Amino acid sequence: MTHKNDHIALTIDVESTEFLQSLIDRSESIISYFTPIFEQEQLVDFKLVYITNNFEKYIKSSIDLLINKSASEIFPVIFENGLFEIYTACYNKENFEITYEREFEFEEKTVWLEGKVIKQNNGIIVTSKDISKLKKVEAQLRDSLRHLEFQNTILNDSEQISKTASFRWNINKNIWVFSENIRELFKDTIDAKCLQNEGVFCFLDEQKSAKLRSLIETLQYEDVLPPFEFSIQNDHTLLYFSLNAHFIPSRDGQMMLGVIRNVTEEIKSKKLLKEKNQELLTINEELDSFNHIASHDLQEPLRKIRMFISRILNVDQETIPDKILNYLDKISDSSERMQQLILHLLDYSSIGKKQLPFEKINLNTILQDAFIELEEEISKHQVQIHTINFPEIYGIPFLIKQVFVNLISNAIKYRKTNAIPELWIHHNLSENLENSSSHFLEITFKDNGIGFDPKHKESIFKLFHRLHEKTQYKGTGIGLAICHKIMQTHHGSISAMSEKGVGSEFKLYFPITNN
What we know:
515 residues, elongated, 13 helices, five-stranded antiparallel β-sheet, 17 strands, alpha+beta
């Protein structure tokens, strides 16, 4: 017969066991108990005797199927990752405890477990905790740190290349933080203690320092500090710097974030450019003086030479020997060529010098004006001209007319002696390959003249370049150079194609944009 007190004690014991089991089941830790397996008195494996129910979330089967099975059968990985040696060491030594972290694969699911092993009676208790999330965060943190290190490396490299250094300044607490390149930027002029206490003000004289402090005081609650420039003396060299910064609020008050850049080369380049511009202005003034001399003083003697030759021929032509008359003709031709050369040089030097306004012009009118100017030559050599109706464009009328006149004149000058000279003038639109939103108006002048070797298609637009002796064809070698310069003034271009005995083709390209 059971005693009443014994029944109460049994009830309390059962309730305590159930309470402890409830705590274990609700715990995040996995508790397992292994007993050793010996072969010939040597520990070769462990048998799983107990494992908490919460391990079932890592496997598809019931944990009852794992009980009393060897570790080599259910957890073979412990013989690869060093856990078997840890389990053995803890079993062989009383009160010896080891904590570890290992990665496991449970039915295609990767799990990181933090475990603790300790001997208990004739076995070992392994307490494991899932730290997979923590490991994932650690991995992300490592990636972030590597990325940050990479970004810092790029920043340092870019600062060295661009000769800059960045900083931040807590205005209220007067805490300065500079990038590493600050030492390279200022080299021997830097004072570490001053830099820590005074920051950028270490590099400024009293006047500049007061000015910058005043600007910061005034603008620190605005967004941006306007560019601030200063200079320092370093080894007999004057270095120039530019400071750019903006302000942001923080819990500790206003922060100033800025960049200091070495602009010495830029300042020197600007100074050199200014000097070169001044030299260019001086040269232009000299050219203006030359143009004035060329247009007046040089042409006047030539006019007098031709005038006196004309008078001599009118008065004494019959009594002058033929040899002398031949000399006088050569002098007259030379003076005329000289005068034409001067006039063409004046035309060439004046193109693009003044910013003349572009206006809408009718190309048909310009072309007709060119025909009228060359009417005598066209009629004399019976030139047949084939043309079509042209659109309107924007340009400088008298310059475009000069191009037309030069090209028509060349077609007449370099005609064949055994064929009727013909000239075809037409146009079409061609696409601008660099900008699909714009096109060119292409105007073609094609003749059936003597042509020239294609190898000269680029050089003919150079100043004073001639393909023929001056005794064969009159000219100064400037006409096509003038055409080239006029087309540049119109933001266009000119090209040439030719073949000896077949004729020449000149193309003018005037840009036409959508707007």
